[in-house]
């Protein structure tokens, strides 16, 4: 375990804890100071790096064969969709603290916040991708994106660039960390009927995060990537179904079956590909599904299940209505 990492993470999570312990100040501290500072630093880094002489490497492997699919699956590691399910709760609570209690108004403000956040994330990721591209030929063989960013900014700004990147990483992780810890605290406080207070849950999640952070990025990716491959599809499915609920009116049954399929199939896929655990006929059946090699075996079956359950529920509803009408007649 690195002593420097231990000290850094201790200070980092102490600061995160201090912010989370006063949720009423969350919007002011994160929205007015941390996030704008983060965006300004990223923009500065982008314009400095992008102005360098370009040394672009040719794509290889999956980035050459199926760049869209590879990029989509690599996006799992950002955890944005999973985090969004939690952050939606945080945003709703923050809106209510401004005195907005009408649910329609809360939803309207959340939609606006979501659209703005999505646009900003798109711009940020476009800038980061461009930074990685500019010097990609010079940094072949690096283990992760953090190292690519570090080498790129060092090439552009020297040691000052590394200090700048440290601030960017700190602010980026701090805003995310604060959001996740606070949302987790509020969620589990309600889940367990206030048996433990919000502050207690915040302390628990902060301590857990502090311990996990000291495993290092590569180890965390090694642990988290298989988990993300299992939980990310269901997060995407729930988000898409939730967005389209108002005009497609999915039944509870559709949600249950869609969730089961979008968790079950990735689980079998991860067991086979990552842990080399073959479940006989079940694994063979999953491997025969479209887009298994690309890691998207869950996509079409989930869509089919949603359509079939929706049609079945509608058909049963019509039969029930006809039977009721017949009895009344």
Characterization of this structure:
The chain has 13 helices and no strands. The protein has 329 residues and is mostly helical. Helix 2 (26-50) packs parallel to helix 6 (103-134), helix 2 (26-50) packs antiparallel against helix 8 and helix 6 crosses helix 7. The chain is globular and about 80 Å long. The mean pLDDT is 84.
Number of domains: 2
Radius of gyration: 23 Å
Overall form: globular
- Which sheet architecture does the biggest sheet show? none
E-strand count: 0
Topology pattern, helix = H, strand = E: HHHHHHHHHHHHH
Beta-strand portion reads under 5%
Structural class: mainly alpha
Portion of residues in helices?
over 70%
Low-confidence segments, ≥5 residues, pLDDT <50? none
Count of helical regions: 13
Mean pLDDT: 84
Distance between the termini: 77 Å
Subcellular location: Cell membrane
Protein name: Branched-chain amino acid transport system carrier protein
Pfam families: Branch_AA_trans (PF05525)
Keywords: Amino-acid transport, Cell membrane, Membrane, Transmembrane, Transmembrane helix, Transport
Notable traits:
329 residues; mainly alpha; 13 helices; 0% strand; globular
Structure at a glance:
The chain is an all-alpha fold and 329 residues long. It has two domains: 3-214, no CATH class; 224-328, no CATH class. 78% of the residues lie in helices and 0% in strands.
SSE layout and pairings?
Layout: H1 3-20, H2 26-50, H3 62-65, H4 67-74, H5 80-97, H6 103-134, H7 145-157, H8 159-191, H9 198-213, H10 217-248, H11 252-273, H12 281-287, H13 299-328
Helix pairs in contact: 1-8, 1-9, 2-6, 2-8, 5-6, 5-8, 6-7, 7-8, 8-9, 10-11, 11-12, 11-13
